[in-house]
Design a protein that fits this description.
The structure holds two protein chains of two kinds. Chain A has no helices and twelve strands. By secondary structure, chain A is mainly beta. Chain B is mainly beta. In chain B, the strands form two sheets. In chain B, strands 2, 4, 5, 6, 9, 10 and 11 form a seven-stranded mixed sheet that branches. In chain B, strands 1-3-8-7 form a four-stranded antiparallel sheet, with no helix packed on it. The chains are: A mainly beta, B mainly beta. At the A-B interface, strand 5, strand 6 and strand 10 of A face strand 5, strand 9 and strand 10 of B.
Chain lengths: 114, 114
């Protein structure tokens, strides 16, 4: 069975600075996806970024980028130029290709301070 | 805009009184999911429909059932809500097949059981 571990329950960052959220996972699969979802206090789960395991290039979406290390089974999220609106719970998630079931980590609460 | 819609956003019910939560989508996705999320926890998958095929998670209580009358709509029925069923219920959709499967979430329905 797959597991996802987020070792940082809470993090804080100053506005405009950069922060990195950690995620590791365990799987014997070779074809899978990894995701970061953001859940603000309004509670809607929003997709931040997606990485296909077969792609070596790290995914990037504007201020959000990942560092995907397949051999190390690590998938960290870097948020550049942090904004107050980035304050949220961030979930790392794994999905085996063709199965559709998301396996979530426990989440990291990120607080951006002005 | 294509989206996942959940109604109502807030639902109050009495202990033991059946309740139905609704989800609809304009994304034309073939998979619809129901998650239960309790405070500060990761979402927990209850079940999903792949087209008309119903897939129940092994640990989903019998008290929870689902219906998908057509591609666009999916319902979560809680037959006899208990106090422990108070939670946020999230609906998500995805398109299975190809290399781009990603789940998109609705805003959630917060259920309160009195």
């Amino acid at each position: 069975a797959q597991t996802v571990t987020q070792s940082q329950p809470e993090m804080s960052v100053q506005e405009a600075e950069t922060v990195t959220l950690s995620c590791t996972y365990d799987t014997s699969e070779n074809n899978y996806y990894l995701f970061w979802y953001k859940q603000p206090p309004s509670r809607q789960m929003i997709l931040v970024i997606r990485q296909e395991a077969y792609k070596q290039q790290n995914a990037t979406e504007n201020r959000f980028s990942v560092n995907f290390q397949k051999a190390a089974k690590s998938f960290s999220l870097k948020i550049s130029d942090s904004q107050l609106g980035d304050t949220a719970m961030y979930f790392c998630a794994f999905m085996k290709h063709g199965v559709g079931k998301l396996v979530f980590g426990a989440g990291t609460i990120l607080r951006v301070k002005s | 805009d294509a989206m996942v819609i959940q109604n109502p956003r807030y639902q109050v019910t009495q202990f033991g009184k059946p309740v139905t939560l609704s989800c609809s989508q304009t994304l034309n996705h073939n998979v619809m999911y129901w998650y239960q999320q309790k405070s500060s926890q990761a979402p927990k998958l209850l079940f999903h429909y792949y087209d008309k095929d119903f897939n129940n998670e092994a640990d989903t209580p019998d008290n929870f059932q689902s219906r998908r009358p057509n591609t666009s709509f999916c319902f979560l029925d809680i037959r006899s809500p208990g106090l422990g069923d108070a939670a946020m219920y999230l609906c998500a959709t995805s398109r299975r097949g190809g290399q781009q499967e990603t789940q998109y979430f609705g805003p959630g329905t917060r259920l309160l059981v009195l």
